[in-house]
Amino acid sequence: xxAAPDWDEVHxxxxxxxxxxxxxxxxxxxxxxxTTHRHTPNGHLLNVDxxxxxxTLTSGRPIHLMHTTPALDAIRTTGELHGAAGCLVGALYxxxxxxxxxxxRPHNLGAYLLETKTDTRTLVLEIRPERPSRAKGLxxxxxxxIHLNTYDAHRSFLTAAEDHRIRQAAVRRVNETxxxxxxxxxxxxxxxxxxxxxxxxxxxAAVPRMPFLGYLYFEVLCEYLLLHSTSPQTxxxxxxxxxxxxxxxxxxxxxxxxxxxxxDLALFNPGQAQLTELxxxxxxxxxxxxxxxxxxxxxxxxxxxxxxxxxxxxAVSFRDAATDFDSxxxxxxxxxxxxxxxEMRTLPRYPALFPVFEQAKATSVYDYWNREEIxxxxxxxxxxxxxxxxxxxxRASCTAxxxxxxxxxxxxxxxxxxxxxxxxxxxxxxxxLGRAAFPAxxxxxxxxxxxxxxxxxxxxA
Length: 461
Fold this sequence. Notes:
Blueprint (H helix, E strand, L loop, with lengths): L10 E3 L16 H9 L13 H6 L5 E7 L2 H7 L1 E4 L8 E9 L2 E4 L1 H9 L4 E9 L6 E3 L5 H11 L5 H29 L7 H11 L5 H17 L3 H8 L6 H10 L16 H11 L4 H21 L10 H4 L3 H7 L1 H12 L5 H22 L15 E3 L6 E10 L5 E7 L2 E6 L6 H6 L24
Parallel strand pairs: 3-11
Antiparallel strand pairs: 1-7, 2-4, 2-6, 4-5, 4-8, 6-9, 9-10
Helix pairs in contact: 5-15, 5-16, 6-12, 6-15, 8-10, 8-12, 10-11, 11-12, 14-15
């Protein structure tokens, strides 16, 4: 079905100003959109010399990161740093720090985390690479091909019933939304198939049936806000080479009441009126343009994320493709991969499957990052401060400290830790997703009847 993992297809190189190509037949190319973005009020923050994070990565100088964690005691005990699956696949999720004479200044994303994650402790990491890191950011929206390839390679770990459930659910979701998905492809090719009011009504209705659309919808609006904002706060952050990432947090938490419990963009589906109201609350001057931007941008982003670069958008019909999973994967392999990835997380046995499927992706991307000289990968949908530590990078030293925050919001290392970066994902139940969806099982009484019947039997939640 899918070829060997091609990590180039999911990384944008901000140093060269090139993005992975989209499918054939689109009204605009991915580079067309990047050029458009560079001409927005904050477009200079897409350039290496305009974005402080990108400047630091490509300088060869030490890279300073902050990482918030509720598990400091466990880190002390093991002496190890592990990664987490998510938008950075297998990196340790961090935010940039800038050394100043008074202390380490967090990126505005880091400042936001310090303000809101009050039940965590903060680590400061200093990476000293032997050579400059690349300014190549990972676009998690385009991981569909990687997801599908990993599923194909490790499908034998699934029971027949689990595999059937995943494949049938993927086909059902496409069947339920095929009309709107075809509308998106038509719009991406340059048509305008329906009114904005109908478009947003259909989009809001489609997200619960096709949750991946919620991620695309959210990132389109983040892109719009972060690139077009001209608020005093945004201008102040831009003067220090930072995108105003707080805008994206405001958007998510205002749109979905349960975001504080679990950050789940599958629930992001505001209708047109709610969208206008949301943007008006965040930055009134941008409210009028939000619907037009989304209407234009979302179809293109969907076509790139669903089909991949070796397909023709004019040759795909989701009404025809969703007869069975193999047909869907042949027509839209990246969408099939996104669906498999998300359906697998609904399986009761997912905690047992997580180390197989997600560690395989993490190990694969570590290899890519090492070959590409990427010591600190970042979320390349936009270079907005979501930065990570490549736990497998052999050509850099890493020093860690526990840090405290002063009244000025600056970080001060207080205790050096002897920690080893280990290229392994943390256990699922140690993550927000795991704690929310797969709580630890209640301890069983220690009696012979409660023991596994085999030395190899493991109770599964």
